[in-house]
Every structure is written in C-alpha cells, then in structure tokens.
Amino acid sequence: MVTQVTATVTATAAGNTQRSFSFLQIAIALQTLTIFVQAVSAGLLLTSSYGETLHGVGARVMYGATMLYVLAAVLAWKPGGGSARPVWHASGFLVLASVQVVLGIAHVPSVHLPLGVLMFGLSVLALARR
What we know:
- The protein has a two-stranded antiparallel ribbon with strand order 1-2.
- Helix 3 runs antiparallel to helix 4 (109-129).
- Residues 1-14 have low confidence and may be disordered.
- The protein has helices spanning 23-47, 51-77, 85-105, 109-129, and strands spanning 7-11, 17-21.
- The protein is mainly α.
- It is 72% helix and 8% strand.
- The radius of gyration is 17 Å and the shape is elongated.
- The longest helix is centred in the middle third of the chain and has 27 residues, at 51-77.
C-alpha cells in the first residue's frame, strides 16, 4: 500500500532545485485554502444573496478537508512509526471545525468569527512547520 504521495516542483529561476510535497503537506495546504475561502464567503454572506449558500457549501468542503488532514496524519504516522504529534494536531483541528460548524448553525458570530480567524492562523502555522 502506498502511504505517501509526492509531487515534484522544479524552480528554474533559482536553479534546478526540487522539492517534494507529502500527502500530509497537501492536506494541510488544502485545509488552509478552504478556511481562507470561508473567510471570503463570510464577507459575501454579508453583501450578497448567494453568500449564505456559498458559505454553507464551503463549510462542508472545509470540514471534509479537515477530515482529510486527519487521514493524512494517521497515514504518515502509523506505517513509519514516527511521532504522533501530527495526528494530535489534526484531531484538534477536527474538534475546532466541529465547534465551528455548531456555532455557525446556532448563529453565534461573536465566537464563530474569532474561532475562524484562530483556525486560519493555526492552519498557516501548521503549513509553515511542515
């Protein structure tokens, strides 16, 4: 079974340097992107009629990306026997995403918005650490 997906990117401007991205890094990047899109759709929620639909669909996609992050962390940890820290981080994000969904459905923007900002910051930090 293949447990790591890699993609190679070649930078020609700075020489021929190659960098490979693991499935875990791709999952974190996807999660970060979806959280950012949620911030954009939250702005549209306030200014347009289709913003609520876009934000609702985006919430489901963001939650799926967070579950993908948990899966990638488990796949990176279990076969290699490495540190379980990424699994704990990913699980924490899943808890935060669950709380975020509940707060959004309950229409509690006073907590929902700051939690979204916190999640974006933590996701960027997780991406930078990989």
